[in-house]
Design goal:
511 residues, alpha+beta, Rhopdopsin 7-helix transmembrane proteins, Beta-Lactamase, Alpha-Beta Plaits, 3 domains, 20 helices, 55% helix, disordered C terminus
């Protein structure tokens, strides 16, 4: 029975070692935690053979071979606490050599010579559960071992207890305090089973495996929850993924979804049970596959668009699975739909008037510069029509600014209804509009604009008001300069308002 318990305990510690190794191989604190677990695992492996040894000599062999565990773990555990508290960094090399010389000497002594600190002799237990120790304290070695245990492990635990009070994290305080409590309990149990009971009776084998099992189960079931030095030990990975505000997907190399957090389900908008590429638009699907097949860094952001209209920035990271030699893809999706809409809205407002939807002054200027360059290259001439609503101020003063806005919108719609396919319409400022035209039939176009504006039904926003516009125009070839193009058209428009001729009118004709 005890051989089985020791075997199970050794297996348990080996599993803990494997988990720690997969967490980190470089961190010093983790390395020493692995060594502590390794010494306990070795002790239990040797005990498993010790309890079921076929002869007394074989029992002695496994007991002495186990000294690496039952003697070595004391110094290793003490040093682990020194690393945990960073005191190890303050110890010079000479003190470190002195620190390790005692446990190394004791371990070699107990491995090579008899009696050991734990046993003067070995006998079969009267319960027939395996070999047990005979201990009458006739040698100095048990007392040397107890002093070694008290100085090394007792001193380290005392320092850890004092040091934890200075830590500001309640979780770290809880971890360190419970480590002290756990070690004290386990050492007490082990001391009773190994040193006290064999002195009085050979009834039971020394049950060091029970003490170490208590340590392992207590640590795994309780203390690891406070070990936030390694978050994946303290928290389940799914907890971290589910807490993320971004969509997190784990897929195989063919993008079949293996895991999806709740946020990704919200973003994809349906049951997540297919390939990730099935949720993408054709262009984004091709972009994703091309990117994944390329030699680019797989954690670079990739702009994708889902079939449901959401736009995401997706990062892809290829990860080797811990337990199998297979690769999985970790995809992180950040929803940028609202950001993209805002950017597009801002880009729109840079060039377009929000009220009427026509080009604004900046957008008009860019088109005019392009047309002027085309003219310089021998392409078609163009003209500018400057339009101003007649008596627009009276609408605002009489009916309010909301009526003025309605009049501007109605004017923009009227101008659109008669503008040619190549014409460019713009709200220049206030109640002023500009039309760029290439065909050369400005007289006919001006009359169409006037008729369209006069036909506006203003009863809904300015009852009884007759909508009308004044128009001034100029041709680019007439002036050869964009600023002058505006000025001439503006002057002619105001001249029309005053019904007065403008100098140079004959160059272009009557407006």
């Amino acid at each position: 029975m005890f051989s089985f318990i020791a075997s199970v305990t050794a297996t348990f510690f080996c599993m803990l070692i494997y988990q720690r190794v997969t967490v980190s191989k470089k961190n010093r604190q983790n390395t020493w935690a692995i060594l502590v677990l390794g010494s306990l695992a070795w002790w239990n492996i040797c005990d498993a053979f010790f309890y079921g040894a076929p002869s007394k000599e074989a029992a002695w062999f496994w007991h002495q071979l186990g000294a690496v565990g039952w003697c070595g773990f004391i110094a290793i555990s003490a040093y682990y606490f020194l690393v945990m508290t960073a005191l190890e960094q303050k110890i010079n090399t000479s003190l470190k050599i002195l620190f390790w010389s005692v446990p190394v000497a004791l371990t070699l002594r107990f491995m090579l010579l008899r009696p050991t600190a734990l046993a003067e002799d070995l006998v079969l237990s009267s319960s027939n559960l395996g070999w047990t120790f005979v201990q009458h304290y006739q040698s100095i070695w048990p007392f040397v071992f107890m002093a070694y245990l008290f100085v090394y492990l007792g001193g380290a635990l005392l320092y850890l207890y004092i040091w934890q009070k200075q830590d500001k994290s309640p979780y770290m305080q809880r971890l360190y305090k419970d480590l002290v409590r756990l070690d004290c309990i386990v050492v007490t149990i082990g001391f009773v089973f190994i040193f006290v009971l064999p002195y009085f009776t050979p009834l039971l084998p020394p049950m060091g495996c029970i003490a170490t099992l208590i340590f392992g189960v207590w640590y795994w079931g309780w203390l690891r929850n406070y070990d936030f030095l390694y978050v994946d030990l303290a928290l389940p990975p799914a907890c971290l993924l589910e807490s993320c505000i971004d969509g997190m997907l784990v897929t195989d190399e063919d993008y079949r979804i293996l895991y999806a957090n709740e946020q990704s389900k919200v973003m994809l908008g349906q049951a997540v049970d297919a390939s990730y590429t099935d949720y993408l638009l054709e262009e984004s699907r091709g972009l994703l596959l091309a990117f994944a097949a390329s030699a680019q860094e797989k954690i670079s952001p990739l702009p994708l668009e889902l079939k449901n209209g959401k736009r995401v920035i997706c990062s892809i990271n290829r990860i080797q699975a811990k337990k199998r030699r297979v690769a999985v893809l970790l995809l992180c999706m950040h929803d940028v739909s609202q950001l993209k809409e805002t950017q597009e809205r801002l880009a729109y407002l840079v060039h377009y008037d929000e009220l009427t939807g026509l080009l604004n002054r900046r957008g008009l200027g860019e088109v005019m510069e392009e047309w002027a360059k085309d003219f310089a290259c021998g392409k078609q001439d163009f003209s500018l029509l400057f339009l101003d609503l007649t008596d627009f101020k009276r609408i605002n003063d009489t009916f309010g600014h909301h009526a003025g806005d309605a009049a501007l919108v109605a004017t923009a719609q009227a101008l659109r209804s008669v503008a040619g396919e190549g014409d460019v319409l713009s709200r220049f400022a206030g109640d002023e509009f500009v039309v760029l035209h290439k065909d050369g039939e400005e007289d006919q176009l001006s009359e169409c604009f006037r008729s369209a504006v006069r036909a506006i039904d203003s009863s809904s926003f300015a009852p009884g008001f007759q909508m009308n516009i004044d128009i001034g125009r100029s041709r680019y070839s007439e002036v050869g300069n964009l600023n002058a193009l505006f000025q001439i058209a503006d002057m002619r428009m105001y001249a029309q308002k005053r019904h007065a001729p403008v100098p140079g009118e004959s160059l272009f004709g009557s407006p």
